[in-house]
Structures are given as C-alpha cells and as structure tokens.
Amino acid sequence: MTGQQKNTILLVEDETIIAMQEKMVLEDFGYNVITVNSGESSIELVDTNPDIDLILMDINLGSGIDGTQAAEKILSKHDLPLVFLSCYVDRETVEKTEGITSYGYIVKDSADTVLNASIKMAFRLFEARVRAKEREKALQDSEEKFRLLAENVPGVIYLCNNDEKWTMLYLNEAVEEITGYHRDEFLQDRISFVDLYHPDDSAAIFKEVQAALAKQEQFRLIYRIKHRNGEWRWIEETGVGIYQNGEVELLEGYLNDITERKRMIEKLQESEAKYRFLAESMNDIIWTTDLKMNITYMSPSFEKVLGFVVDEGMTLPIKKLLTPGSIRLAKTTLVNEMRGDEKRDPGRFVFLELEFYHKNGSVRNLESSLSFIRNENGKPAGIYGLSRDITERKRAEETAKSSEEQIRSIFRAAPIGIGIVRDRILQDVNPRLCEMTGYQKEELIGVSARILYPNQEEFDFVGKEKYRQIAEKGTGSVDTLWRKKDGSIINVLLSSTPIDVNHPERGMTFTALDITCRKQAEQALRESEERYRLMFESSRDAMMTLEPPLWEFTSGNPAIYDIFKVKDVAEFTSLKPWELSPKYQPDGRLSIDKAREMIDKAMSEGHHFFEWVHKRLNGEEFPATVLLTRVEMAGNVFLLATVRDITDRKRAEEEIKRQLAEKEALLKEVHHRIKNNIASIGSLLYLHAKAITNPDAKTILQDAIGRVNSMRMLYDKLLLTTSYQHVSVKNYFDDLIDTIVNIFPDKANITLEKRIDDFQLDVKRLFPIGVILNELLTNIMKYAFIGRDEGLIRITLAKNGKNVRLTVQDNGRGMPENFDIDKSKGFGLMLVKMLTQQLEGKFTMENLNGARSIIDFDI
Question: Which of these, 172, 148, 144, 147, lies nearest to 158 by C-alpha position?
Fold first, then answer.
C-alpha cells in the first residue's frame, strides 16, 4: 500500500490478547486498525465513523449480541464489506452467516498471508458488488419498462398458485376489460377465474393444465368465461408451470380475449362457404395468375365455359387460351396498371373484354374484372379476377336484345346485388341488394342512392370516380362503404356500366358485392402478421423457421447474429441445421439423428422443449434450450424454433458442485492436520522435558504439556460429537484429570476422587475451565504433597440450575499463612484468575484440611 491511502479496518474481537495480535498483523500489512470488543460498540462506531472501509467481525462476542447480529444491524444502515473471523468451522456457525451479506469467512488459525489475501479479496468483491448494483439499477429500469409494457398489453398477464381456485398473485389491469372485474377482486380472493368458467369447459381446463404440468410443458387452452355483464367471452390462454425441486409452485401465463376473432372466424367460415358455393356453382370463372400471366387457380366453371377440365387448363400457355389481340390487350393493360400503381387505389378493379379459345376451337367472349393480389409490402404479386362468358350476350347484341323477361330473370337470380339508377335515383333493385342493405324494395325505388352511403363525402366520391372510369373505359368500379338500414356499415365493391353506351342519360346498371368479410379478414391478417413480426424481431432468444421436407432454415431474427455468430440472415439460411451442432450430443447420439427425433416429436405433439448443445459459426460449442413449435399458415406447415443460450447457467451449476467438493475435502484435511499439529506440539514438549535437566525449565514444559493435552482432548471430543457447539462435561473432565495426573512420576501414590455431573457445556466455556483445572491440579501435584508418601485429591464439578461450581480439594500441607491470592504473581494463578474473569465467575482459595479452590460461574 506504499504511496496509497491506507484502508481502515474495524476489528471486532472480545478476546483482548487475540485482538492485539491481530491488530499488529493487520498494521504490518499497511492497514489502519480500530478495535472494539463487543457487537454493540461496533454498531455505535460504524454509525459515527465514516472512514471505516471494512469490518473484520468475530462471531462469538461474549454476553452481548453476537457477531452475526451486529453484522445485520450494521449492514441494514451501511453498505460496507464485512468479513467474519472465527475459530469455528462447524456447520451451524457457518450457517448463521449465510443469510448475511458477507465477503468472506476467515478461520483465526489461518496464516497471516491468508488473512491478508482474504481481506484483499473482500475489497475486490465489494467493488465488484458496487458495480453489480449499478448494473442491477439498469436492470430495474428495464424491469420497470417491462411492467409498463405488461400493464399496457391488450391481454391479461398473470401469476397464480397451483391450487383449486388458481389463487392470483399478479394480474395486469387488462383483466378488467376482459372479465368486467377489477384486478383487486381477484388478488383479494373475492372472486376467482374458476367462478367464471363455463360449466361445459371447467373440467377440461383443469385436466389439460394438470396434464401439461405433469410433463413440464406449456399449456394452451381455449374456453369461455362469463363477463360481469353476463356475456360469455371466448378466452385463449397460454401458460407454463414454475417448478421448485420438481414440484409445481406457481403458474404464469397470458390470457387473450378472442371473442371477436371467434365471431370473425365464424363469419369467415360462413362467408367462405358462400364463396365456395358461389365459385363452384356459378357460371363465371374465378381465377388467379402470377404477374407473368401463368394461371395459378381456376374455378370449376372453367370447364363449363371453355370446355377444358381445370387441371388441363392450368397447364395451357396463355397463347392457347387467348386470341393474339386479347393477349396484347391484357399485357398492355397490365403494363399500364403496374406503371401507375403507386398513385392509384390499391384495391381497384380493371374490367376487360377478352376473347378465349374454347376446346372445340370456337372463340368465346369473356368479360373480366381484374385486381392485383398484393404481398405484405402492398406490392402487386399476382392477379385475381372474375370472368363471365358474354359470348351469347354479344351475339344477342349483334342480332337482337334478349327479352326483358330474360333480363329480369337474371336480375332476380343473381347472387350479387344489382340495381338500375338514372341521375343517381334508384329505379330498380334485385332481391340480393335488398338482402344486403336490409331495406325493402319499396323503400329504395325512386329514392336517391345517397340513402345507401354513410355520408355525403363518400356519395360524392363514388359518383365522381365511377363516372370518370365510365367516361374512360365504358365501365366504372370502386370500393366503397354502404350504410345498412340498421346503421351498420359494410364494404361494397360497386361496378357500374351504362344501359346504353351511346345514351348514358338512359341510366346505369350497377352490381354490388358485399366484401366486408374479406376486408375484415385482410385487416385481421395484417394485424396478426405485425404482432408476430414485432415479437420475432425483438426477442433476445434466437428464433428461426424450418420447413419440410429437408428442415432447412428459412428465416431468423436479429438474435441469431450474436448467438450463432453469423453476419446476416442470408448467411444463416445458407447453413444446414447440422452445421450449427457438434457431431455428437452429450448422450453420445449423433446430432442429426437426435434432431430428427426432436422434430418428429414437435410435429406430432405440436411443440417440444428440450436441452441441446449447439455450435457457433466460429466453432465454439454452447448449451441451449430449444422450443420447437408446429405452425400452420396459409396451408403451409413449418416449425418455429426458439433457442436460448444457457452457458452462464450451466457454468454456475458446475462451479457450485466444484466448490462444494473442495470445501468437503478441505474440512477433512483441516481436521486431520489440527489433530496432528496438536499431537506434534505435545510430543515436542515431552521430548524437550525429557532432554533438559533444569528443573524450572522442566516444570514449565510440563505445564505446557498439560495445557496442550487439555486442548487436544477438547478437540478430540468435538470431533466425536455431532455438534461442535456443546460437549459432555463428564466425558471431557474424566479423561482430562487422568491425563494431567499421569504426567507426574509419583502419581501412583495419589488417590483421586471425582464427582462430575453429566451435562452439556458450550466449547467457549469448556476450554477455559479445562485450563483452570489443569493449572490447579498441576499446582497440587507439584507442591501439596512434598515430604509425604501419599495424598488425596477430590474434584467436584456440579451444576445447580444456572450455576456451575468447580471445587478442587487436596489434603496436603495447604497454603502458607501469609498467602494472599490477590497479591500472588505466579503465572498459573494469574491465568486462573484471568480465565475466571472471562467466564464472568468468582475464584476463591482457602485452607481446609489442605487447600481448597472454588470456581463459581453462571451459564
């Protein structure tokens, strides 16, 4: 730390001698050290001293609060690195610290370099934590954005218990719109979703959810609930289980009100059935082509009109179907429409009369209304149209007009609305038009066509646009809005043509096709595609599509760049799926074989979730979770794959296993070394005592041997107990007394009487009592029986309530008459007095048929 500002360490240690030694060691390493001897003092000092950089906290701090309690109080108000310092490595002591934000656990007997390294590591960990908190703040900001998103999504996001009532723990505000009930009514358990289920759906809901949870799979349900207003609403629910130790704890998911979609689907199905019936039963040909005029669809009426079966006609080139003049007209019209497409109505129709070849070689005249099929960008991608055989009509016009009754018959039977107007006053309408609008025929005849429009602007626009087209091409067609008698609005494709081209004042004939369902379906499709696109492009997981039969990639979202290290989607889709997996999976199976199995399962079950090892383009392998979902769209089936990189999670799991194994091995080695070290110390002292002749030195060494044996025996007892916190007093002191006396050569002449109660005592008190007993017995063996052939020592250790009394009595020569315990300077008695003070007890000595020593303390 030379040249740097010294860090200040607060050392909390109740053992004065140990505190002085630890302070010197820390100061040698360049730290400023402040010491206190209790948890209460440490709290007060940290509150008043802002210069403290780190706290070194002993766990057991005497009679007051212990180190873990002091640490909790300090850390509740101060963000400081705190390291626990203790001589205990038992599980219970260590577990007391686990709920506290500490930066290390140092055993007191550790080497000084270990102490310094641990403190440095604590500083580094604290700095890393500070940086992590900054990142956490950023994450919280992100979570707040998510919360805002959750509260503003159109559906219900929920979190609930897996119980009979699906007790709700979280709901966003959208639940009120879907159910009519405020979310607090669910969260306060005043109502549950179970109460709202349709009776016919309830059992199936529980069955499907529990079946999915048992497989740990996502569940998707469609069912009905009763809105507060009494209406039954259709709900689509997607959810998953949250598991703890293999058991379902919670459920989370998303509810979406699909009532309108259900109604739309029903209407679409109804409309589709009508259109299918219309397409298959009407004489007009419904067809589609690409922009090169290659036929892609023909309705069955193709055979009726032109003699070719549909399959045969689909393979014919355009020159086999159209006369040269009609081919030129069609191509010229297509070029003109494409050239000005961006400036025109994208839903416009173009009307042409074209000459077709019949299979028998004759020429048929067909009137066709055409419009563009558009892609997702609104650009023309093909042509669809309706062609009506007007050959007979042309012939009739050339020879004679069809009778009025025939026209009326067609007028009445036509499946689309037809009417006649003159000066925009309705002259006649067919039944289908009345059905479309809800008016009776009598309500429309002689009335301005304005009655059919929602406003004057729409009425004026249609008139202007339609007459412009008629002036240019003889016919006019426009998409417009009509208002029915009940006030509802429908989309209408309106086509008009003069009754007499040469005399427009005679009136116009118009057809009206209700295209409301088609418009709604197109809008719903656009909205659905937009939602999917946003989700696809914003996901942090890699998302991609695979199509049969080879199951190659066809698209990918932006997340694939980072996860698979590809430059762009083009590079990604150029890769084969097996190029992004190693040859073998961890279970030894070939990736290509196992991938086929996963795909088959997803295709058969609808979705499949599993773990997989992928390979980035740079060759790096990484673990991932994969969700394969079967998707059907526009008649095509493909798989949507979602890949999540779980490298960090796997590393964390492996690191936890490794550290646990290291700690278990370290604990075994520590126990072995401590026992060996204590035994080695005792052996060295014994050898020295044997080797020297100086009686004073020999006495000192024998005293040390006694103290070491006391420590050794205590440690042995601790190892043999299931708890390192408490030890049997009787077992410990019975062996300790015999060991102390056996050190002395004249032990055979001494009679021992031991009366020791059998109770448990904590190690912090047991060790100083053992040292006290060692000092008293050693003193008796050395001095009490000088000049005598035999002696008696009586040792009593008794517990009475919370009081413990140790009595050591001999029948020797007693203490000198002028002996004063408070003035004695012998090391042994001084140690006994200090340890008695540590026990917060009382020590007395007296002459009573020898010498008697008494130690009293409370537990």
Answer: 172
Same domain, residue pair 582 and 670: no
Q: Is residue 310 part of a domain?
A: yes
Domain co-membership, 627 together with 725: no
Calculate mean pLDDT across residues 214-236: 93
pTM of the model: 0.30
What is the spatial distance between Cα 163 and Cα 730, in angstroms, rounded to a whole number? 54
Q: Report how far apart, in Å, the C-alpha atoms of 507 and of each of 426, 441, 445, 586 are.
A: 10, 18, 14, 81
* Token pair listed for 510: 């118009």
What average pLDDT does the segment 416-426 reach? 90
Which of 614, 645, 676 delimits the end of a domain? 645
Q: Residues with Cβ < 8 Å from 408, sequence gap 6 or more? A: none
Q: How far is CA 802 from CA 81, 273, 596, 858, in A?
A: 38, 93, 74, 5
The tens digit of pLDDT for each residue in 696-718 reads 787 778 777 766 766 666 566 55
State whether 680 and 808 are in the same domain.
yes
Report the pLDDT value the prediction gives residue 148, as an integer from 0 to 100: 61
What b/e sequence results for 244-274 when a residue is b if at least 16 CB atoms lie within 10 Å of its CB, and e otherwise?
Answer: eeeebeebebbbbbbbeeeebeeebeebeee
* Amino acid (one-letter) located at 524: A
Asked whether residue 360 carries a pLDDT value surpassing 60, the answer given is yes
Q: What is the pLDDT of residue 839?
A: 92
CATH code for position 72: 3.40.50.2300
* Helix/strand number for the chain, H first, E second: 27, 32
Closest by alpha carbon to 83, among 138, 26, 28, 140?
Answer: 26
What are the backbone dihedrals phi and psi of residue 374, each rounded to the nearest 5 degrees, phi first?
A: -115, 150
The 10 Å Cβ neighbour count of residue 686 is 17
Q: What is the DSSP string of 395-446?
A: HHHHH-PPPHHHHHHHHHH-SSEEEEEETTEEEEE-HHHHHHH---HHHHTT
Which residues, including other chains, have CB under 8 Å from residue 654's CB and lie 6 or more apart? none
* Overall number of domains in the chain: 5
Query: Which of 10, 19, 136, 29 lies closest to 78, judged by CA?
Result: 10
Q: How confident is the model at residue 283 (pLDDT cuts 50, 70, 90)?
A: confident
For residue 582, the 8-state DSSP code is -
- DSSP per-residue codes, 27-53: HHTT-EEEEESSHHHHHHHHHH-TT--
Nearest to 578 by CA among 567, 587, 562, 589: 589
Nearest in space to 591 (alpha carbons), one of 614, 607, 574, 608:
614
For the cut 90, the answer to whether the pLDDT of residue 798 exceeds it is yes
Q: Give the DSSP H/E element, type plus range, for residue 697.
A: helix 695-720
Q: What letter would DSSP give residue 505?
A: G
- Alpha helices by DSSP H, 3-111: 16-28, 39-48, 67-77, 91-96
pLDDT of residue 3: 44
Question: Do 249 and 300 have their domain in common?
Answer: no
The torsion defined by the Cα of 704, 710, 713 and 718, in degrees rounded to 10, comes to -120
Q: What is the pLDDT of residue 467?
A: 84
Q: Is the peptide bond before 549 cis (omega within 30 degrees of 0)?
A: yes
d(CA 181, CA 172) in angstroms, rounded, equals 12
pLDDT of residue 716: 64
Q: Would you tell me the crossing angle of helices 763-783 and 729-741 to the nearest 10 degrees?
A: 30
285 & 391 share domain: yes
372: enclosing H helix or E strand: strand 363-374
> Token pair 């036509």 is at which residue?
414
Angle at 607 between CA 602 and CA 608, to 5 degrees: 70
Q: Where in the sequence is the domain holding 179, given as residue range(s)?
A: 153-257
Question: What are the pLDDT digits (tens) for 60-84?
Answer: 888 889 888 998 999 899 989 999 8
Contact 69, 50 (CB under 8 A): no
Question: How many angstroms separate the Cα of 229 from the Cα of each of 177, 232, 260?
Answer: 11, 9, 16
